[in-house]
Specification:
The complex is a heterotrimer of chains A (493), B (414) and C (120). In chain B, 21% of the residues lie in helices and 36% in strands. With 414 residues, chain B is of the alpha/beta class. In chain B, helix 1 runs parallel beside helix 2, helix 1 packs across helix 8 and helix 5 packs parallel to helix 6. The termini of chain B are far apart. In chain C, 18% of the residues lie in helices and 37% in strands. In chain C, the strands form three sheets. Chain C has a five-stranded mixed sheet. The radius of gyration of chain C is 18 Å and the shape is elongated. Bound molecules: flavin-adenine dinucleotide (2 copies) and iron/sulfur cluster.
Chain lengths: 493, 414, 120
């Protein structure tokens, strides 16, 4: 039941529930039109769930079943990624990718992948032999491989942030810390109840990721269950980074519902090892486990022998929003639907991998559905460009010198491992989305992500957040609501 | 950008850098510059407010800040040039030093560079503790900085992983500030901190110490709610069914320190995999000519008094080096007994008095540690008990040493 | 009666074996120096410790000044002394060695500053 006491906050044309990569891409695509758009997000930052917890690979599209939405949107997303990355100023590199095999059985599977890829329209796929593997990545083992030149790597967090920032710059409202708790169908749309008031909108789009089944149930669509399936990762020190110029995957075991434990360089020069595939009970249980971390080490070494425990600087996990259970196994296709009985509610569930790659085509697909009902007029002031935070350490000495003269904060190194300056931290703290969590600042600036993991800089960053925003110790959050970093002062004044 | 030429550049204004500077000035070296990234000199001692510093050096029980102040005063009285709030970002093998500050980007070229950047702490990632990632997990040194420098209280009930000295000291510090410390868990069968700290930081406050135990999981999605602790077997594997849950809002990690070696590596300095710091000869010269190292950047010390002494020995050699390029006695290795974790120096040229610093790998009772060259025993020290927490020093005068002959540090059980 | 103690006076941390009867110490073994014997006696009769903490500073470049006691106090009085330290607030500037609380809790020791804090 709606609580009629709560003041009606705002009325929109389109309300997006969830600001992962899909919600953020949709917000940006919608801001191209003359529509009043808002995003409701339960967390204190965008990209807190699955979109910030994956391999960051822009897949070419050979792993998906020909004819599926996954295949179509993945191929489109991959081909178009360079343009978007340029517009919103985020790191992207078309590294190519190797899927390595060791025996005849593997060769057959690789051949099958190649054929599926070609059917999907993936350009440039080739079966190569060990000499080519050695040539591309001497540290990678394998007798033969499927080489995909179109595959690339990106920073999934910055991608989502940049999409959301560009959307906000083009007029979209982002409501962080607003969890949707109930939805009621009304005459010309929906009333959406959140933990901080009621919203009304003509259209509601479900981009709630791991909770998309629950949001669907709020409007009466109860035929989906999301089975959370966790993938754990190791993050390696940059020292090994140069030995892995491109992602290296084993031949996937389709039944497992993952692509196998692989090695992926990040756009910052670290390496990710993972993910595992384990069905779990709790949707946001991002804990890592000893046995899986050991497994990652063993499996990773099979294709990348330099991997060793002392290179690990941290671990993390992401959770796949699967529509298939442990017993069914494999993949279900993306669900993107608009049902007659829930008019103007576009339901999206099961947006698992390659959802990061496919986000923009998925968003455009949603807009084409809306376009069947609405007269979409272009927003003449839409600006597709957004600028990221300038990286001081990547500038020439002369430019560094002049930057410091323009803004002395560039002369203060705050994070010594990553070489991040106070000017960059302050730019991150003053981000257009108004996010103030330590993790938010970390992901935007890369401070605290190096091998000391904030040992030196976390204190300064916490101080800068408190000073910039006039905050008390108790209100500094690590990431989620209630993730209090401090309990107060040692000597209260 | 113009390059400034200097005789000596010291990177880091902690006890090692300060002692080296003061000693160099005493030898008459004029052109010394200390570069320190913090606003104040003193290094890690600024946050070590407990007492127990300076007993060897000043025969007094001082706190960290007081110990540091003595050296800061000496450096200032001697008129040694110091730049603070400046971070060295690059070091090259030709002894070019690049640094940034609010006032600009600086490039220096020095005849000799002294590495005195101290150390950093091992983190949760480095020791791979599984579990979720809530707020409330701190390394001991960061916890100490928050509480002692920033007036920020980090938690109300804590579990401490690792029995390093800083962890023990933080157990007491938290207790005095009204937090409850549930226990200290150490994976080794013996504590890694000094016995006096077990007594005065844990026993005095009835804080239990569990040896052969480790944290096997971390709980909580927002703030830490607790940890799972298990007993471990002799190869440090958790023993099934020994898990116990401990409720706490804070986990303090005191699981080791590693020399700060970003700059050392950038300059191409060879590192010793045992100390994780540069490999040096008895002049504290690294594998790169004219680059020297002392203090925690070289190997992790538990007592600052030994840091100062080491830096002073380094200064003597740097002084000689500035006067004349060293007569190139060939450097030969110092072989460490398998019972020893490492030795510093790792190489000797046998052209000055030698001090060897080392640590045993595990606690040993009734041992003799000696330095041998061929079948000549140069020095022996006897220990009723030698423990990893205490650094051991052995000295040999130059006259006894034979150039070109490797040295052996030998441990014998009595 | 026999008791083993760890001397906390210096980093050597000698293991001391004390043989005592009531309040009479019969022997102390294991000390590398005479301070160890004194410590053992004190520890059996009335254990004492020095403590370090911080005092709030107003108008200074740092929010806290580190402090310690001029000498050890009975162990059981530690939390009384902490209460006095916690209640105190001093105005910058503060000098090293400056007495912030004289004769704290009437125990004959002073609380002194161990750091210099300049005025803002
Ligand atoms: C281990 C792993 C590896 C992967 N690797 C890749 C890869 O390499 N390449 C690739 O293309 N894809 C990859 N993926 C898939 C990709 O990460 C996802 O498909 C994509 O991130 C899904 O984005 P999303 O926006 O749908 O979901 P999410 O990022 O989960 O966003 C949903 C948002 O909705 C919010 N929300 C939920 N409920 C509510 C509510 N009631 N009210 C308000 N807000 C709510 C959540 O807080 C969240 O922010 C991987 C996935 C995993 C798990
Ligand atoms: C947390 C902790 C607690 C300790 N407790 C005790 C104790 O109780 N008793 C005891 O006797 N000893 C103790 N020690 C040991 C002793 O204090 C240290 O061994 C000693 O301080 C090391 O001195 P240092 O000069 O090598 O390093 P530090 O004191 O760490 O000084 C290094 C300096 O270099 C600066 N620096 C680093 N990188 C750069 C750069 N790129 N550019 C410019 N400047 C840079 C740093 O800011 C710092 O000021 C403790 C050590 C630690 C780490
Ligand atoms: S007995 Fe003497 S040498 Fe031994 S710990 Fe005590 S003070 Fe130090």
């Amino acid at each position: 039941m709606m609580n009629k006491q709560t003041a009606l906050q705002k009325r929109y044309d389109v309300l997006i529930i969830g600001s992962g990569v899909v919600g953020s891409a949709l917000a940006r695509e919608l801001s191209r039109y003359q529509l009043n758009v808002a995003v409701l997000e339960k967390e204190l930052d965008v990209c807190t769930e699955t979109s910030g917890r994956n391999s960051g690979v822009i897949h070419a599209g050979f792993n998906n079943k020909p004819g599926s939405l996954m295949a179509k949107f993945c191929v489109e997303g991959c081909l178009g990624y360079g343009v978007v990355a340029d517009e919103i100023d985020i790191p992207f590199s078309r590294t190519g990718k190797l899927v390595v095999g060791f025996d005849d059985e593997d060769r057959k599977k690789l051949q099958a992948l190649k054929e599926a890829g070609e059917q999907n329209g993936v350009p440039g796929l080739e079966i190569v032999e060990s000499d080519v593997i050695r040539d591309k990545a001497p540290a990678i083992l394998g007798e033969m491989a499927l080489y995909s030149p179109m595959t690339g790597i990106t920073n999934p967090f910055l991608y989502t942030v940049a999409l959301a920032e560009n959307a906000v710059q083009n007029g979209v409202s982002l409501w962080l810390n607003h969890e949707v708790t109930a939805i009621e169908q009304v005459d010309d749309g929906y009333q959406v109840q959140t933990t901080q008031g009621v919203f009304e909108s003509r259209w509601v789009i479900n981009c709630a990721g791991l909770f998309a089944d629950r949001v669907a149930r709020m409007v009466g669509i109860d035929d989906y269950t999301i089975y959370p399936c966790r993938g754990e990762y190791l993050v390696l020190d940059k020292e090994l980074g140069s030995q892995l110029p491109l992602p290296a995957y084993p031949v996937p075991n389709i039944r497992e519902g993952g692509l196998g434990i692989h090695l992926t360089p990040t756009t910052d020069g670290n390496i990710l090892v993972g993910p595992s595939t384990d069905y779990i009970d709790e949707h946001t249980d991002y804990g890592t486990t000893r046995s899986i971390l050991d497994l990652l080490m063993r499996e990773g070494r099979k294709i990348f022998p330099p991997l060793n425990p002392s290179a690990v600087i941290r671990t993390f996990a992401g959770v796949r929003p699967k529509l298939v259970s442990r017993t069914t196994g494999g993949y279900a296709d993306f669900v993107i639907e608009h049902r007659p009985e829930t008019r103007h509610f576009i339901n999206m569930v099961g947006l698992e991998s390659p959802g990061l790659t496919a986000a923009v085509p998925i968003a455009r697909n949603v807009i084409s559905i809306i376009g069947e009902y609405e007269d979409l007029r272009e927003n003449p002031s839409f600006n597709p460009c957004r600028e990221g935070i300038l990286s001081f350490k990547d500038q020439t000495p002369e430019r560094q010198e002049s930057l410091i003269h323009e803004n002395p904060d560039y002369g203060v190194v705050v994070c010594r491992c990553e070489g991040i300056t106070q000017a960059e931290i302050l730019a991150a703290i003053r981000n257009p989305l108004g996010v103030t969590t330590l993790s938010g600042i970390k992901n935007r600036s890369r401070a605290m992500m190096g091998r000391c993991q904030g040992g030196y800089c976390q204190i300064r960053i916490a101080e800068l957040i408190m000073a910039e925003q006039n905050r008390s110790e108790e209100s500094v959050m690590l990431a989620r609501k209630g993730s209090r970093t401090f309990v107060g002062k040692v000597r209260p004044s | 950008m113009t390059t400034q030429n200097r005789s000596v550049i010291i990177i880091g204004g902690g006890p090692a850098g300060l002692a080296a500077a003061a000693a160099l000035r005493q030898q008459g070296v004029e052109d010394i510059l200390i570069l320190e990234r913090e606003h104040d000199l003193g290094g890690i001692l600024r946050q070590c407010i407990h007492d127990g510093f300076g007993l060897t050096r000043f025969k007094e029980a001082l706190s960290g800040p007081e110990y540091a102040a003595r050296f800061v005063d000496t450096v200032q009285q001697a008129g040694i040039e110091v730049m603070t709030d400046i971070t060295v970002t690059e070091l090259h093998a030709d002894r070019t030093v690049v640094a940034t500050a609010r006032s600009g980007r600086y490039v220096f070229k020095a005849q000799a560079v002294i590495l005195a950047m101290g150390c950093r702490e091992r983190t949760r990632g480095a020791i791979q503790i599984p579990g979720s990632r809530p707020a409330g997990v701190y390394t001991a040194g960061i916890a100490q900085a928050y509480m002692n420098l920033k007036n920020i209280m980090i938690g109300r009930s804590a579990v401490i992983l690792g029995s390093g000295d800083i962890g023990l000291i933080m157990a007491r510090r938290l207790t005095l500030e009204g937090a409850s410390v549930k226990g200290v868990f150490e994976i080794q069968p013996y504590p890694s901190g000094l016995p006096r700290n077990i007594t005065q930081c844990l026993d005095d406050y009835d804080i239990p110490l569990f040896l052969s135990h480790t944290v096997t999981a971390i709980h909580g999605t927002k703030r830490l709610t607790g940890v799972t602790v298990s007993q471990v077997d002799s190869s440090f594997r958790p023993i099934p069914d020994t898990e116990k849950e401990w409720t706490c809002d804070t986990l303090i990690l005191s699981v080791g320190l590693i020399p700060e070696n970003e700059l050392s590596k950038m300059a191409g300095v060879l590192l010793d995999p045992r100390t994780k710091g540069p490999r040096v000869d008895e002049h504290y010269q690294t594998s790169v000519a004219g680059i020297f190292a002392a203090g925690n950047v070289l190997h992790v010390h538990d007592l600052v008094d030994f840091v100062s002494l080491e830096a002073e020995r380094l200064a003597e050699s740097v002084g000689d080096y500035l006067k004349q390029a060293p007569a190139d006695e060939e450097a030969v290795p110092v072989e460490a007994d398998p019972e020893l974790a490492y030795t510093v120096p790792q190489l000797v040229r046998a052209d000055r008095d030698l001090t060897v610093s080392c640590r045993v790998r595990r606690p040993l009772n009734r041992v003799r540690i000696s330095i041998w060259q061929n079948d000549q025993k140069h020095v022996t020290r006897r220990f009723r008990r030698a423990i990893p927490a205490e650094m051991i020093h052995l000295t040999v005068p130059k006259e006894k040493l034979v150039p070109g002959e490797p040295l052996k540090v030998v441990v014998e059980h009595e | 009666m026999n008791k083993t103690l760890t001397c906390v006076i210096c980093p050597n941390g000698c293991q001391l074996t004390v043989d005592y009867e009531g309040v009479t110490i019969q022997s102390v073994e294991g000390a590398l120096c005479s301070k160890g014997n004194q410590y053992a006696e004190q520890e059996i009769l009335d254990p004492k410790r020095n403590i370090a903490s911080s005092v709030r500073v107003t108008g200074g470049k740092a929010p806290l000044v580190s402090v310690r006691l001029t000498g050890p106090i009975p162990k059981k009085k530690i939390f009384d002394v902490m209460a006095e330290i916690r209640a105190l607030s001093v105005a910058a500037p503060v000098e090293i060695g400056q007495v912030l609380i004289a004769d704290v809790s009437g125990l004959g020791q002073d609380v002194i500053a161990t750091k210099r804090i300049d005025r803002i």
